[in-house]
């Protein structure tokens, strides 16, 4: 039987597929979580309905990428999955509860009358909890998990650090920016004007948050910085601060014009810059800074078998996602969709 491991770097390929799935999830579910974070501040019930309708056709499909990333980690790197899920059990649980609250709000809000405020609160709180939990998990991973003999050896609250908390707030700001720029595309008139103003505030807040997180990493002596200042990583990462500044000024300019799509696309590039920095900091570790992708990978035969399925299913998922966004293009209104 032919073994793809003889000609392909299967752990690297699967690490790349999982990283891609996580990034797509962050972008797609990020903007609908961001809409939930901004939800209470929209000014009227009709505006809140428009916000919810702008993401109603997409929110559950967006979470497919979370399942794909988690399932891929479990199948391709089972040891890493066990360590990471054990170390981050509480924030993962909090994130899932937040996503459940959001799902309930989608199903019940438009059917409620006198108690609609309950589901509005669930939608907002669930969005904030999910976003904050994801930021905490990212911060805990960048800071590193304690592991020995292929088992998690830290405590249940090791993830609860000042750096992880800062990352949690930074994630809320980033998702709010994604959500506000998404609303520029999907809304019009006064709600779109409001979304432009919020985008300007969140853009400035995100740049400040990125500086604070980077400074925190430097003064906390987090191992991730070693990956940034080594060659050839330094050559690739050196232009990124300049690119971020250019994106900042270009987006500030766009928010004062009638452009609708480019602010969202520029926000995506901002997220990409940050994500590239995280990947360079952690590579080749999948359990920072304890276990590499090669040490944690499943057998080549398993990775080869699963790769065939991934090659078949990924284009199907991407095609379905593109079709959904094409079908539900255009502006949203306040009429019930559920």
From TrEMBL:
Similarity comment: Belongs to the cytochrome ubiquinol oxidase subunit 2 family.
Location of the protein in the cell: Cell membrane
Gene Ontology CC, one term: cytochrome complex
Record's bilayer topology term: Multi-pass membrane protein
InterPro entries: Cyt-d_oxidase_su2 (IPR003317)
Main location: membrane
The name this protein goes by in its record: Putative Cytochrome bd2, subunit II
Annotated signal peptide: none
A GO biological process held by the record: aerobic electron transport chain
UniProt entry keywords in alphabetical sequence: Cell membrane, Membrane, Transmembrane, Transmembrane helix
Species this chain originates from: Psychrobacter aquaticus CMS 56
A GO molecular-function descriptor: oxidoreductase activity, acting on diphenols and related substances as donors, oxygen as acceptor
Listed Pfam families: Cyt_bd_oxida_II
Segments passing through the bilayer: 12-43, 122-142, 162-185, 197-219, 231-251, 263-286, 306-328
């Amino acid at each position: 039987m032919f073994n793809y491991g003889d000609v392909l770097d299967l752990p690297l390929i699967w690490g790349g597929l999982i990283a891609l799935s996580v990034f797509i999830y962050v972008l797609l579910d990020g903007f609908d979580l961001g809409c939930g974070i901004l939800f209470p501040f929209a000014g009227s019930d009709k505006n809140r309905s428009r916000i919810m309708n702008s993401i109603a056709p997409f929110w559950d499909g967006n979470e497919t990428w979370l399942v794909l990333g988690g399932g891929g980690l479990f199948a391709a790197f089972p040891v890493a999955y066990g360590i990471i899920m054990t170390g981050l059990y509480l924030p993962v649980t909090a994130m899932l509860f937040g996503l459940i609250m959001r799902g309930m709000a989608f199903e019940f809000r438009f059917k409620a009358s006198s108690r609609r405020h309950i589901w509005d609160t669930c939608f907002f709180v669930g969005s904030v909890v999910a976003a904050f939990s994801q930021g905490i998990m990212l911060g805990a991973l960048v800071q590193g998990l304690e592991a020995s003999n292929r088992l998690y050896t830290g405590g249940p609250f090791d993830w609860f650090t000042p750096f992880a908390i800062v990352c949690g707030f930074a994630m809320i700001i980033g998702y709010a920016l994604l959500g506000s720029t998404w609303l520029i595309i999907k809304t019009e008139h006064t709600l779109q004007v409001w979304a432009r103003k919020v985008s300007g505030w969140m853009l400035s807040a995100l740049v400040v948050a990125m500086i604070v997180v980077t400074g925190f990493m430097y003064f906390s002596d987090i191992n991730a910085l070693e990956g940034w200042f080594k060659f050839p990583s330094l050559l690739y990462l050196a232009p990124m601060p300049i690119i971020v500044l250019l994106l900042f000024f270009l987006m500030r300019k766009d928010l004062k014009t009638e452009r609708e799509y480019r602010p969202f696309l520029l926000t995506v590039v901002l997220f990409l810059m940050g994500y590239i920095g995280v990947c360079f900091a952690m590579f080749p570790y999948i359990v920072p800074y304890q276990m590499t992708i090669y040490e944690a990978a499943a057998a080549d035969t398993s990775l080869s078998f699963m790769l065939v399925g991934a090659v078949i299913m990924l284009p199907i998922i991407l095609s379905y996602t593109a079709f959904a966004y094409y079908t539900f293009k255009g502006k949203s209104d306040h009429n019930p969709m559920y």
